[in-house]
Amino acid sequence: MSRVGKAPITLPPGVEVTLDGSRVEVTGPRGTIDLEVPGEISVRRDGDTLIVERPDDERRNRSLHGLARSLVNNMVIGVSEGFTKELQIVGIGYRATAQGDDALELQLGYSHAIRVKAPEGVTFDVPEPTRIIVSGIDKQAVGQVAADIRSHRKPEPYKGKGIRYLGEYVARKAGKAAK
Question: For residue 132, which of 177, 165, 168, 92 has the smallest C-alpha distance?
């Protein structure tokens, strides 16, 4: 049995779940998100918990069991608490400015500013010019948007300049040795 898949999902107060065949819809204080459960995996409600089950021990069903449970659990956490990713900008003259809740303008040492528009359900917050907070209810979307922003100027190993996740360690290299 999958260790992840067999763990029940506890529903916090204020979160409603609608089960319709293989479709799961979760509604909470932060919004609504739905998912088509992959394969033959089923989700059932038992009081204030959700239980994810697989029909048999075939290889495909075993591999999808833990995945389906994690996806449904992330939906429950997303609509109740939400997800955030923090990015840090390092470098002289590198900065970010918010253009409302759904757009960013990045100055990253290029001859032009880079404008990033947030997809629906994702918001940006810029508490200081060198910090960006990406938040939303969909864990995958938040992580993907943060990765896309980071890809505009990845941290380089010689001076450490670029965009990195908060707390990310960048391995530094020694420069050229002088004669």
Answer: 165
